[in-house]
Amino acid sequence: MSRTTAHTAGVPPRRRSRRLASLVTACVALGAALLAPGAAEAAGSTPEHAYRNIGQADRAEWMWGIASDTPLSAMSIPGTHDTLSIHNGPNVQTQEDWGDSAATLTAQLERGIRAIDIRARAIGGSFTIHHAVYYQNANFDDVLTKAQAFLRAHPTESIVMRLKAECPYSDVGTFDCANEPKSVTPEQMRSMFAGYVAKYPGLFYAPSVTGNGRANVPTLGQVRGKLVLGSFDSVESDGYGIKGFNDRKEDHWAPDSVAQKWDYVKANVNKAITGSANDMYVTYSSASKAPFGPLPSDFAASVNYQLMKHLNSSAGRVGVIMTDFPGWGLVNAIIDHNDDNMVKGGQRSIWLVNSDKTYSNSQYQGRCMVRGPEFDAGDGGLVTQRPCQSSPPSSHQWTATKPDTFDGKGYFWIKAANGKCLTMPYNNGTAPAAGTQLFWWPCETRWFSGSQMWNVMPTKLATSTGSRPAYYFINNWTGLCLSMDPATASTSGGKVTQDACPK
């Protein structure tokens, strides 16, 4: 999915397309590792990777690598449908059984699940967890206690909860649960929920649970360590949750066939990929025609695999995806679609472009790229680095500008204040190796001027409060990135070089 980067002085606005992003993938060195340990490092490839095998407890903190200023609507979040439905046979079960009293919830959270679907029955003034008429050996206190414990242990994370009043208020059918007493009203359900909010102070993202109106979509930074109520359904109120949560939802839960369900799922996921990052998308990949047609497990076995393959071959935000019997490969595939909002730590091939037109290195902080000493002939010189200055001289200033000719592929010149261009040494026509020091040189328009063409790639750099824009610069000729020489990084006049690009 294309995204536009905000203008930073010295770097023109640029749209990052999938075609250009693919150049980054080609850069083989890890460079700046994504700040997300265990976050979807392996891609699933077989049906067993997508279904009923959620894997190891190694994805408890994948959200800490996402920029805090990212809205929840711009994220890709793996979730489970009927999160605690583990009992009463194949017609009812939707998830792997990791234990009662919401132990299954803890297992899912440790394995990357961050959106949950909780179905509540009112009984004696409190909530129990049901799938239709079937009690799932857990109560709402279990859910909130386990969620609170997880978030306290992993405060960088957030959980989004869809809560539904599961039992009808009248015309209770054979397979429906019944509230006790049966006279429970939607207003009483809302009142009971308010009691839980008060009982667990600080657990919920407060604007989502007031009952006075849906909250604006928060940023991740606003809800780290919080349980966010996405919606509270079947309580005859639109005052809970966050705006737009149910507006772009796919939930054909009883389609004619497995193939039809996959068509619905794929269509909504693709809408999320191309839609506005400000809009919430929720896709339920779950369905059932039990007891006379395909079971929840039958739908999940097929749809999960097709969904995993589709996600592995696409890019862009996919929204909240609620699944039955997810496998680790599917969970990883959803998490992987947060790549655009992952922040990167300091690395010598990532640069901050400052308002004073200086380029400072993100790993060797306080070191700026400068126009170094001239060659004997005076027509060019070396590119070096020195300590950044509060009032930088013109030799410290650079600007990315469109070339006069030759371009056509969206590349830039990086021009010094004297009008000369950042240049890869010609090296008799052989692409120079990593570690080669760069020149400043008159801007060329000849066939080999790809040595002066740079693809400006936006990224994000972690800060104490979230993130800030940063960039890496890929040379058109060598495919390597603007970098610094580690051996001379602490030395004034140290080398500015090319090296492997960040991944």
Can you give a write-up of this model?
With 503 residues, the protein is an alpha+beta fold. Helix content is 19%, strand content 24%. It contains 9 helices and 23 strands. Strands 14, 15, 18, 19, 22 and 23 form a 6-stranded antiparallel sheet that branches. Strand 5 and strand 6 form a beta hairpin. The longest helix has 17 residues, at 258-274. The radius of gyration is 27 Å and the shape is elongated.
Helices, strands, pairings?
Layout lengths: L2 E2 L10 E2 L1 H9 L20 H4 L25 E5 L22 H8 L4 E9 L2 E6 L2 E6 H14 L5 E7 L20 H14 L20 H4 L3 E7 L15 E2 L7 H17 L7 E3 L11 H17 L6 E5 L4 H9 L14 E3 L5 E3 L5 E8 L6 E7 L10 E4 L11 E4 L4 E3 L15 E3 L12 E10 L2 E10 L5 E4 L9 E6 L4
Parallel strand pairs: 3-11, 4-7, 7-8, 9-10, 10-11
Antiparallel strand pairs: 1-2, 4-5, 5-6, 12-13, 14-15, 15-19, 15-23, 16-17, 18-19, 20-21, 22-23
Helix pairs in contact: 3-4, 7-8, 8-9
Give a quick precis of the structure.
This protein has 9 helices and 23 strands. The two termini are 18 Å apart.
Task: List the keywords.
503 residues; six-stranded antiparallel beta sheet; five-stranded mixed beta sheet; disordered N terminus
